[in-house]
């Protein structure tokens, strides 16, 4: 990997008053991973959001100055249908920004800049969810973009509906908690109240004829080649509101995902004009039992800017490395937590609003097994510590469970200090 300069350990002001780059203080020195080749040459006429024009096209070539072998950095990305693009609004002209702006949709009225997608913001960073058409060598081909030619791109990340869409978050938690049959202790655990909420929405999605050809192709192949369709093949696999049949999902996920890889690799020419038909954001798809998200479109609107599009992820994303752990507290730890939570009748947490909430959070953290793979494999019998809010938690892990042993007041709570207001630099 190519270095981008030695980071300064401390924030120091330059003569111009700017802070020198220092990761710890957030003064990041960025180096674009590439410059976008876009069908839009100027701001004027460029869509305000990617969902507006699914046929807009762009190509991003990862620079060799970032990775000697750019194609290595894109390995596996072809298995995703959508990616986030983080970029710099390099044509803002000037670096001024205001606390309140007038977004076009507010017709002249003002609102706080952070409640908008305005390009004029303190760090001039844009975020676009683009459709990934194909990966070829060290380049990605995109459709559904709202960035102009020459836009410096800082990063790309896969779109994972399970993490990135609130609706899916609920299902994801549900799925994780369904890994194992729930035991009485789990039911009693209190985790239910915070982590096993079911989405109240499980709309019945309708097949969308205008939806994108490629995903349809994947659907066809998945159903033809691999599996019998679910018996109720005209319905989304919801056995109860908000509850999808994750087992069926997982089974078909792998097939769909493999197909995605294959399909992507089959695309040939590099020129933008030879792009495949764009994966449309227009409308949603019903892929029975597949990883393509169904987002409950009863009809097929020409634009669904307010709904998440169907998306594809590789199987490994959906398959948790291990089943969620059962979490329990020793009576001592329960007592510790009660004491910590009530300071002469007052809740003494800074972030949690109740002891129960703190307990939920601790359980959620531990159920997902926060240990590194190294620790999990090689230091199984070591105590594990972490701090959340004012609670310093000590626990140990056994086969399929984590047990909280002690909960004490954290002596050194993490301070978030603005370096400008402190003579003591962060990290000292
Ligand atoms: C409203 S912003 C939204 C961008 C992104 N989706 C976001 O939410 O951060 C989109 C507009 O930014 C402008 N734009 C696109 N690329 C730009 C660039 N590199 N520099 C400055 N403005 C840009 C275009 O006028 C486009 O219509």
TrEMBL record:
GO terms for biological process: tRNA methylation. Residues 1-20, 219-245 are annotated as: Disordered. One of its GO terms (molecular function) is tRNA (L-threonylcarbamoyladenosine(37)-C2) methyltransferase activity. Residues 228-239 have a biased composition (Polar residues). It catalyses: N(6)-L-threonylcarbamoyladenosine(37) in tRNA + S-adenosyl-L-methionine = N(6)-methyl,N(6)-L-threonylcarbamoyladenosine(37) in tRNA + S-adenosyl-L-homocysteine + H(+). PANTHER family: TRNA (ADENINE(37)-N6)-METHYLTRANSFERASE. Belongs to the tRNA methyltransferase O family. This is tRNA (adenine(37)-N6)-methyltransferase.
């Amino acid at each position: 990997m190519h270095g981008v300069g030695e980071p300064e350990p401390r924030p120091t002001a330059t003569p111009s008053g700017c802070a020198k780059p220092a990761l710890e203080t957030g003064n990041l020195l960025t180096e674009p991973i590439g410059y976008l080749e876009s069908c839009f040459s100027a701001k004027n006429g460029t869509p305000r959001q990617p969902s507006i024009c699914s046929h807009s096209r762009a190509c991003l070539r990862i620079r060799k100055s970032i990775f000697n072998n750019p194609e290595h950095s894109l390995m596996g990305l072809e298995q995703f249908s959508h990616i986030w693009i983080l970029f710099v609004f390099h044509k803002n002209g000037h670096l001024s920004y205001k606390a309140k702006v007038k977004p076009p949709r507010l017709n002249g009225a003002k609102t706080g800049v952070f409640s908008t997608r305005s390009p004029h913001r303190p760090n001039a960073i844009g975020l676009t969810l683009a459709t990934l058409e194909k990966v070829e060598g060290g380049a990605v081909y995109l459709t559904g973009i709202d960035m102009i030619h020459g836009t410096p791109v800082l990063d790309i990340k896969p779109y994972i509906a399970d993490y990135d869409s609130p609706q899916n978050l609920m299902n994801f938690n549900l799925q994780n908690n369904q890994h194992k049959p729930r035991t009485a202790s789990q039911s009693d655990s209190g985790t239910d109240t915070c982590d096993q909420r079911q989405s109240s929405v499980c709309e019945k999605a309708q097949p969308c004829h205008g939806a994108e050809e490629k995903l349809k192709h994947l659907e066809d192949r998945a159903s033809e080649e691999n599996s019998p369709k679910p018996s109720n093949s005209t319905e989304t696999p919801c056995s109860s509101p908000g509850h999808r049949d994750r087992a069926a999902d997982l089974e078909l996920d792998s097939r769909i995902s493999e197909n995605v890889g294959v399909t992507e690799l089959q695309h040939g020419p590099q020129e933008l004009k030879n792009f495949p038909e764009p994966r449309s954001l227009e409308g949603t798809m019903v892929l029975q039992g597949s990883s393509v998200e169904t987002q409950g479109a009863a009809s097929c609107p020409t634009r669904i800017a307010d709904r998440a599009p169907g998306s594809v992820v590789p199987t490994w994303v959906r398959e948790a490395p291990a089943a969620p752990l059962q979490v329990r507290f020793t009576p001592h730890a329960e007592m510790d937590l009660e004491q910590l939570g009530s300071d002469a009748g007052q809740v003494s947490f800074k972030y949690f609003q109740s002891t129960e909430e703190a307990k939920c959070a601790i359980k959620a953290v531990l159920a997902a097994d926060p240990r590194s793979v190294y620790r999990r494999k090689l230091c199984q019998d070591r105590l594990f510590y972490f701090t959340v809010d004012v609670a310093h938690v000590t626990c140990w892990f056994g086969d399929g469970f984590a047990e909280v042993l002690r909960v004490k007041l954290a002596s050194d709570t993490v301070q978030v200090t603005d370096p400008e207001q402190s003579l003591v630099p962060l990290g000292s």
